[in-house]
Design brief:
Length: about 180
């Protein structure tokens, strides 16, 4: 009987599912093999060790978030802060995020956080957090991160009406930062 081949993407998806539903510390080569219905040896053929698997998982999660951000930014006024807020507002709780990537990296090896640090640096630079109302823009950016972190960690979940009001206020702050409002 021929063995079924599993793609790199299927293995990454399995690792992400494990991190999301069981916890980042439970991502192992054995667990990925179990989820995809294969052997550890088959996973080792693609990922020589757990660190390589986690690096690829983080890269995949960050690329997906970047893709959604870039898509939203291309449809808006081009203002990075507004696009960032909108990306979080439209995010599916099951979709990859930088915060999820941070949880995975932190559980295994803090050195894995370097690509995530670079991504946050990129977003900070794109948002041009300087000028007369930079503090308001920074507050809006961090508020997005805080809301998602609370939800991701299961510490607090806001109802949809509260989330809508929250994002509406953040969008107003972003518009003021972009010179569209007062």
């Amino acid at each position: 009987m021929a063995r079924r081949k599993f793609t790199r993407e299927q293995m990454i998806a399995a690792a992400r599912d494990i991190a999301l539903h069981r916890g980042a510390g439970r991502v192992t080569l054995e667990a990925v093999a179990e989820v995809i219905g294969s052997t550890k040896g088959a996973v080792l053929h693609t990922f020589p060790n757990k660190l390589t698997l986690l690096e690829e998982l983080l890269r995949s999660m960050c690329q997906e978030w970047d893709r959604r951000f870039d898509e939203i930014q291309s449809k808006t006024t081009g203002d990075a802060l507004s696009a960032y807020i909108e990306t979080w507002e439209q995010s599916d709780p099951q979709a990859p995020s930088y915060l999820e990537a941070v949880a995975v990296a932190r559980a295994e090896d803090p050195k894995l956080l370097e690509p995530v640090r670079q991504a946050y640096q990129r977003y900070g630079n794109l948002m041009q957090l300087d000028g007369p109302i930079a503090t308001d823009a920074l507050v809006a950016w961090m508020a997005c991160e805080g809301l998602v972190l609370l939800d991701l960690l299961g510490l607090h979940r806001f109802d949809q009406t509260t989330k809508d009001a929250f994002f509406s206020r953040l969008k107003a702050i972003a518009a003021a930062h972009n010179g569209e409002g007062t």
